[in-house]
Amino acid sequence: MIKYEQLGTSESSPQPKNKYSSKANILIFLLFLVLGITVWTTIPSLLYLENTTDIIEHSDQIPIQETFSTTPTTSAPLSTSIEKPIPPMSKSRKVVAAYFTSWSIYARAYNVVDMDATKLTHILYAFANLKPDGEVFLGDAWADTDKHFDGDSWNDEKKNLYGNFKQLGLLKKRNRNLKVTLSIGGWTWSTHFPTVAANPDTRKKFITSSINLLKDLGLDGLDVDWEYPKNEEDAKNYVKLLKELRKALDNYSQSRNLSYKFLLTAAMPCGEDQYRKMDLKKMNKYLDIFYLMAYDFRGSWSSKTGHQSNLYGVDLSTDKAVRYYIDQGVDNDKIVIGMPMYGRAFQNTNGLDSPYNGIGEGTWEQGVYDYKTLPRTGSIEYFDDKKVACYGYCASKKEFITYDNPQVVYQKTDYIKRNDLRGVMFWEISGDFPTSNERSLLLAAYHGLGGKDALDQTSNHCFFPDTERYIINYAFSSSNNSLNDDMTSTSFFTSKKPNNSTNVLVV
Fold first, then answer.
1. pLDDT tens for residues 326-357?
2. Is 423 helix (H, G, I), strand (E, B) or coil?
3. Catalytic residue among 5, 135, 157, 227
4. d(CA 101, CA 183)
5. Is 472 helix (H, G, I), strand (E, B) or coil?
6. Together in a domain, 151 and 27
7. pLDDT band for position 469 (50/70/90)?
8. DSSP designation for 20
9. Please, are residues 82 and 443 in contact by the beta-carbon 8 Å criterion?
């Protein structure tokens, strides 16, 4: 360490007078200071932004924070700042998508208005259900279309739209680049997919009922979440379903003289047993986005603890799935990597890759904790640099929880940009910190992909000529189907022209 002393201050050892010496020493000091700061800040950045997708041999798990109190927001700063977005390397505009669940408005007390839509490009609404005859219907009508929120009228004489979908419509109106799609199926409601997809008549009903929901709810597209096709026959029928649905969506748009294309997306597996059964090359012809569910690699079904959403690894990993999808003919810029906004817990264990006994209570269900509650009190948060994964471990409780943190999200967004993938998806958004908190995963993804200018700017759809819902506050004219900036003279969706050309019911 260099010790700097002020010259000419000692009476016992007087220094020779030199009118330049003081200034010269100051300049030398400043030069060393600038060089030191430059080296100190540049080297970590270069190490962090290593430009390879290969698995790199790094050190083992490294604790990145001290033991946490009950307030994770006061934790030590992460090693990667989320204040300065990294410019995107991919030419395609990036997707930041999140699932919003119908049940989040109940015990979780998380509503549409709680989402930071300025950081999102797509919202996937979970879920619509499926009948054996192929009809697609809403899973919770009260939450979806009936619940009255603050400001909703109780005096309507005709059918109107309320619930979460009205709130989503208002959100779309305020954020014209925000797209909303309805997700059909999911783990619980995928039972009837095999029989529905196998029959032309039930496929037709699936398609007709789906498009009716699209126009009545003011959607930008449909998301199919079939978990999972079990054999080659299922895979063939899945392609048939997607092909016919894609054609029907395009026909609907063209027949109404609409200038836009409705989205068709699918939630896709990252488990080798599942994705190897699918005809990905043919699916690529009809899908706009493949949402890879790159989580739940480990859980209560596992024999040992482990990472649930690691980027790299020999066995289950996001990178392994991504490479397979691309090898099978899926376009890079159609692949969106899913990330969890929750952690999976294991109890009575010595840590990573160890036996365990029990999974704990969880926030809302056993063994699953909202990300915003993590790391738990007494836990130390670790970062696995080799696999790009995070976990918390409490030695006194012998509790292990696997989850993603902002550091993981940053490295995954860097991976996305380097490989020209489309973006990120989160399950599900009620589990995150608010974006005012530096530990928010949504905030990390937004900045990691490059911020607003890097994101998908495609406009959403707010004109539905033949909806069944009276959701209009619009002085209709054939030449005007746009939305006003002041949000007063148009509704969030416009419908068929009334016979008397007057305003219909106010939203």
1. 999 999 999 999 999 999 999 999 999 999 99
2. strand
3. 227
4. 10
5. coil
6. no
7. low
8. T
9. yes
| Lookup: tokens for 407 | 């550091």
Domain assignment present for residue 241? The answer is yes
- Our count of domains for the chain comes to 2
In one-letter notation, the amino acid at residue 441 is: L
Question: What CATH number is given to the structural domain containing 147?
Answer: 3.20.20.80
The whole-angstrom separation of Cα 134 and Cα 241 is 11
**Which positions ≥6 away from 501 have C-beta within 8 Å?**
476, 477
- 464 in a domain, yes or no? no
The reply to whether omega before 375 is within 30° of 0 (cis) is: yes
Report yes or no on 303 lying in a domain: yes
Mean pLDDT, to the nearest integer, of 194-215? 98
Q: Which one is predicted more confidently, 422 or 86?
A: 422
Average pLDDT of the segment spanning 485-505: 36
Mean pLDDT of 396-413: 99
Q: Note whether 234 and 315 are same-domain residues.
A: yes
Is the C-alpha dihedral spanning 422, 237, 224, 53 positive or negative? negative
Domain of 234, in residue numbers: 84-342+404-454
Say yes or no: 44 and 100 in one domain: no
Spatial neighbors of 31 by CB under 8 A, at least 6 apart, are none
Asked if 427 and 338 count as a contact pair (C-beta separation under 8 A), the reply is yes
| Residue 123 backbone phi and psi in degrees, to 5 | -120, 130
Average pLDDT value for residue range 432-438: 99
Residue 180, CB-side half-sphere exposure with 13 Å CA sphere: 31
**Order of all β-strands in the sheet with 389-394:** 62-63, 380-384, 389-394, 399-403, 342-346, 368-370
Q: Which residues pair with 380 in a beta bridge?
A: 393
Q: Which residues of 384-400 are buried (b: 16+ CB within 10 A; e: fewer)?
A: bbbbbbbbbbbeeebbb
Structural domain includes residue 506: no
Q: Reply yes or no on whether the pLDDT at 82 is more than 60.
A: no
Residue 227 falls in the annotated catalytic set? yes
- Length of the chain in terms of residues written: 507
| Mean pLDDT, range 299-317, rounded to an integer | 97
Per-residue model confidence as pLDDT tens digits over 454-465: 999 999 998 888
Flag whether the pTM goes above 0.85.
no
Q: How far apart are the first and last CA of the chain?
A: 70
